[in-house]
Amino acid sequence: MPTSTLLDYSLRRVSSATPIRVASVALAVAVTAASAQFTMPVPFTAVPFTFTPMAVLLTAAALGSRLGAFSQMVYVLLGAAGVAVFSPSATLPPGVMRLVGPTGGYLLAYPVAAFVTGWLTERGWDRRYLTSAAAMLLGLAVIYLGGVSWLTVAYTHSIGVAITMGLAQFVVFDVLKIAASALVLPQAWRFLGRRA
Fold first, then answer.
1. Shortest CA distance to 185 belongs to which of 65, 71, 64, 61?
2. What pLDDT sits at residue 196?
3. If we measure between CA atoms, which residue out of 137, 97, 95, 96 comes closest to residue 116?
4. For residues 151-163, b (16+ Cβ closer than 10 Å) or e, as one string?
5. Which of 53, 83, 64 is nearest to 17 (CA)?
6. d(Cα 192, Cα 190) in Å, to the nearest integer?
7. What are phi and psi of 92, to 5 degrees?
8. Is 87's pLDDT higher than 60?
9. Ramachandran assignment for 101, one of left (phi > 0), alpha (psi -120 to 50 degrees), beta (any other)
10. Are 72 and 114 in contact (CB under 8 A)?
11. pLDDT in the model for residue 44
12. Domains and CATH numbers, the chain
């Protein structure tokens, strides 16, 4: 059973991989932050539509469980510290208050979702399209679980309302984004295999 990530495989002949791993984590944070800037308000909810979940899951798939989770922890900590990495919003609170706002559950779930997706790709789930999509869908489920749970407990006090506000309006688009993203991973493995 394969036990490496795209990053591990890419670095197999590199003598000192640490600087590249650090740069890869920084790149994952930058990609997540950039994806958060493409945001669109959604009617009847304070949760905006963004490309961030796709960035979280795709970078985690490439980096693996530990580096993927670490990159998302760095992203969340930067945002909490006031760095403009979260989705721009006139209604959501800035900085650390974003973590207790309506989107806080999603943000805090990012490292866990990255770990889950990365763990599965370390076991070869990113080699084929269907398993790649499944690994990312499981990560997406973690993000939704965090977001909907937080909305239920802190804002709506109703699981039905929280699902309507925080899942139902987004799930189709997020699944379509994953369907597209899952194409990248097997193709990257084929490309690396041809260059080996």
1. 61
2. 45
3. 137
4. bbeebbeeeeebb
5. 64
6. 5
7. -80, 145
8. yes
9. beta
10. yes
11. 75
12. 6-195 (1.10.1760.20)
